[in-house]
Amino acid sequence: MLRASLVRAPKGIIRRQMATVSKSSKKEGDISDAFTSLSGAKKEPLPDRFRELKCELVRGREKEITASWSRLLRQLRKENEIIAKKGPAVVPQVEYADFETGVDVMKEEIRKRGAVVIRGVIPEAEARAYKDEIEEYVKKNPSTRAFPAHDPQVYELYWSAPQLKARAHPHFLRVQHHLMSFLWHSSSADTPIFLDQPLSYADRLRIRQPGDASFALGPHIDGGSVERWEKEGYGRGGVYDKILEGNWEEHDPWDASGRVSAVNNLYDGLGPCSMFRMWQGWMSMSHTKPAEGTLLVNPLMKLSTAYVLLRPFFRSKRGRVSANYLDEENWEFMGVDGMTSELQGATPGTGQECTDELHPHLDLERTMVHVPEIKPGDFVAWHCD
Predict the structure, then answer these.
(1) Is the peptide bond before 148 cis (omega within 30 degrees of 0)?
(2) CA dist 349 to 34, 226, 383, Å?
(3) N or C: which end of the chain has fewer CB within 10 A?
C-alpha cells in the first residue's frame, strides 16, 4: 500500500514498473481515471451480487474467519506501534555497490516490509540530467496531457528519451533481475513465467512542484479493487485463498504461481493495467526528504493485505466516537443475514483505496511512513500488494 505525500512535493520523479506479459488497448485518460477519489465521481453502492459473493466466500468458514480476524487485530496493534516508532527507518535500504549481498542480508525484512530503497542505481548527475531533458521537452510541447489540468504534476509521458534511458540502464536491469528472481518464487513448476526476465511496463511521469497540494492521492493499492474478492478476478489464481479461508498467516505474497492467471482489470478501467507487476517502483531525479512530497508506504504488506480482504465481513458494534471502537470485542462477523454488498474502498474499474474511516485498524495516520531521504539515481521498489 502506498500514497503520495500531501505536504511538500519533490522536484522530479521517474516512475516505472517491472512486470510480466501484457496485452491491452485503452482509451486515453490521466491518473484521475484510476482512482475514485481523484475523479470526483460519486461512489455508488455496489450491486447486490457482491453481497451474494461475500456470503458465498465465507459460507461454512464463519468460525475460522472470525478467529483469524481476532488474531489479525492483535498482530496489527503490536506491529503498528513498531512502525510508528521507527518511521522511515523501518524501510530497508541497500547500496547498489553491494546490491546482491545487501538484499541477501535483508531478504526477510524486505519480504516483511514489501518495500526497499536501493541507493545509487544510476549516477546522480546522470539521473538529474534526465529531469532537465524532460522539463525541456514539456516546455517545447505545452499540449502534453497532464493532471491536474490547471497545475500539471503527473504527465502522460511514457516513451520519452530520458524514460527509455532509465529503463535500459544496465544497473537498473541488474536490480530488476535480482529483485524478481531472488525474492519471488513459484510454487508450481508449470507456471508460465520467467522470474529472471524483467519486462518494462511503461508508466507515466511525475514532476511535482514544492508546496504542491493539488495531487492529493491517498493510501491505495494498485492492481484492481473488487477483483480481489471475485472468482473471475484474483480468484482464478487462488491468490488470496488462504486469507479467505481464515488462515492469513499461511498466505504467501511472494508466490507468483497464482498471480499469472489472476485477472486484475475485469471492468476495463482506464487506470488499472492488465499485466502482473511483481514490483512497482520509482526512479528519482531529485533530492527529496520525508515530508517533502515523497512516497509513503505501509510497511506491513502481509497484515494490511489480510485486513483489506477481511474488513468487508466485519462491522463495529459501537460507533467511532466510542472509546473502545478499535477493541477486538467491538467488532463482529456480519453473518449471512447481516451481510452487505460493500467492499470498503473498492469500486469497479479503479484502484483499491484505503482510509482511516473504512480501515481503522490499519492506523494509517501513523503507519503510512515516508521512505527515507532520496537522491537522484536512487530507486524505491515496492511489492504489487
Answers:
(1) yes
(2) 8, 8, 21
(3) C
* Helices 301-310 + 62-86 axis angle, to 10: 140
- 153 within 8 A of 212, measured Cβ to Cβ: yes
Phi, psi of 265 (to 5 degrees): -145, 65
The pTM of this model reads 0.89
The per-residue pLDDT for range 253-309, each reduced to its tens digit, is 999 999 999 999 999 887 677 788 999 999 999 998 998 888 999 999 999 999 999
Question: What are the distances in angstroms from CA 205 to CA 39, 164, 257, 279?
Answer: 19, 12, 30, 17
Which residues span the domain enclosing 161? 2-383
How many distinct structural domains can be found in the chain? Answer: 1
pLDDT in tens, 115-132: 999 999 999 999 999 999
Residue with cell 531478504: 107
CATH number at residue 193: 2.60.120.330
